Request: fold
Amino acid sequence: MAIRKAYYYKINLINRINRASVNNNYKDIFDNILNGYLNNQNRYESIVLKEGELSDGQIIDRITLDIISNDRQYIFARVSKSKDNKENLIRNMATNEITEVLQPDELGFKTLETYTYFLLDYTIGVLSYIEGQKAASINEIKKIFGENDQYEMSIENIASTETIRALLTEGSTISKIYYDFRIPNPEILNGLGLPPRAVLALGDTAVTNARLIIKNDPRKDLTKDINVVRRLIESLRPDDNGDDAKATVIGKTPGTTQQEYGFELKNYSTPVDIPSTRVVEGEIVVLTLQELSEQYFARMRAAYVGSIETIRNLANL
Reply:
């Protein structure tokens, strides 16, 4: 399984004429636009959200939207972004021979793409988006409305409260604290037990930051005492004096697994486990793109439904 993160957003549809926000009827408005991409087989044609640019004979950063399903409640789609073919190779593991992914004569009509998925709940206008380092930006989806004369779309973060607040719940534990801080010179690390020869060597480097790790013995928590948890969190909270120091707490709340909590505001997200294989008659089989899409849809929807009350509260819905 691969654990991905689904981030949540609130969409707003705005009337281009009177600038009024549309708070319902999302389904009909989207259908009016998407129906223009239906072919004779009643299937959606791919929608090019961004044409991309030509670089060394190949198109990069071209962004394409493929509608996979569109029912009364959800639209589910794949967003693909073309990438540089030269960043990838195909290797024959038996011979170690390598070849290009795309041959030079294919670059004019084929692209190598990274892809991700989104799920939009028409009923309340909440968008779930699997983000990745090389995935298209969430804001590219707004270009669905690029040629529409009546509406435009905006996308707002559904910001989590300070995630560290979750640990203020009775039954929470803290297992480790990372404390990142600036150092004017390495000599101050003497007091933290760093060998003098290491401090001397660091004097010849460009070190400006250090990380202090505070933890107990292996497999032992720092504390399960909720009063101590609360005092620690309050004492580590950043102040407004411009100090660059930053604390990150590793812990868990009742009913959750251990994870990282920070003080900064973040977009609300949930983990989504996506399998890439299945077992057929005792053999491990890699999922096809269609099967993988089905897994993304089912698991993104389950994660969304399971967190719907939290999402509603954070988005004031």
About this structure: The mean pLDDT is 87. The chain has two domains: 2-157, 163-264. The helical segments are 26-34, 196-202, 226-236, 289-306, 308-314.
